[in-house]
Amino acid sequence: MTDSRIHETAIVAPGARLGADCEVGPHAVIEDQVIVGDRCSIAAGAVLKRFTEIGNDNRIGEYAVLGGLPQDLKFKDQVSYLRLGDRNTIRESVTLHRATAEGGETRIGNDTFLMAGCHVGHECRVGDHVIMANAALLAGHVQVGERAFLSGAAAVHQFCRIGRNTMVGGASAIRQDVLPFTMTNGNPSRTIGLNLIGLKRSGFSSADILALKRALRLLFGPGLREERLHLVAAIDSPPVAELVQFIAGSKRGYCARRRRASGADQGTD
Question: Listing from the earlier edge strand, what are the strands of the sheet with 47-48?
Fold first, then answer.
């Protein structure tokens, strides 16, 4: 606890390990077997439960609960973990649960921003630079790729995958995988095109964006699914190859393309 500032009303268990230059606010609780890196801020009323490990420069908001028991009837008090990387911002009343399986982990990457009221369930994997807006919810075993953006009140079914550089609309109900590089919205959720702004901000080239546009048109075009996937796989583009690999790994299927009220296909531009 070198150089850390701990409020007199905070409770820090003797078995907790705090790095240098941390700040712990009023009535915060840090249990035994918790590891906190350097320069972390734990705000008033926040709770870090046992088997939680967080890296450096994390900011934990008021009344957030990290490492809570998994909401899983199979859980029998196994030793499992919640692990966060560096430079994450976890806002008020966020709940992050540790894993169910013995020795398993729920993992949050680096540079994520989880706004107030978000939930990340057991065994989830959340990549770097992910943003979850207020009250976005992840059930157990969800995977979220880097630079994904989940809008407010989006809810993701267990075992779904959210591809990288995606945009999920507010109050969406995600029951199938969200293809990387796309925008998805609605209940049931549907693919509505490429996440063009996100791709451009992430430095995707014009050639790669054009290749992804072509891939989506083919993927959701007429014909047999296997034939369409074969045509997509023939496109010479690393992001398209990643898209094909993502589809090949899907166990729940992926969000279909939204159609207009008239029945015409929604564009992918």
Answer: 11-12, 29-30, 47-48, 65-68, 95-97, 119-120, 137-138, 155-156, 173-174
d(CA 29, CA 63): 10
CB-based contact 130:166 (threshold 8 Å): no
Asked if 234 and 214 touch (Cβ cutoff 8 Å), the reply is no
- Other C-beta atoms lying within 10 Å of the C-beta of residue 3: 11
Q: What is the mean pLDDT of residues 179-189?
A: 97
Query: What is the SS3 assignment for the chain?
Result: CCCCEECCCCEECCCCEECCCCEECCCCEECCCCEECCCCEECCCCEECCCEEECCCCEECCCCEEEECCCCCCCCCCCCEEEECCCCEECCCCEEECCCCCCCEEEECCCCEECCCCEECCCCEECCCCEECCCCEECCCCEECCCCEECCCCEECCCCEECCCCEECCCCEECCEECCCEEEEECCEEEEEECHHHHHHCCCCHHHHHHHHHHHHHHCCCCCHHHHHHHHHCCCCHHHHHHHHHHHCCCCCECCECECCCCCECCCC
pLDDT band, residue 3 (cuts 50/70/90): confident
Quote the CA–CA distance of 79 and 142 in Å, as a whole number: 20
Distance between CA atoms of residues 158 and 26, nearest Å = 35
The mean pLDDT value for 95-108 works out to 98
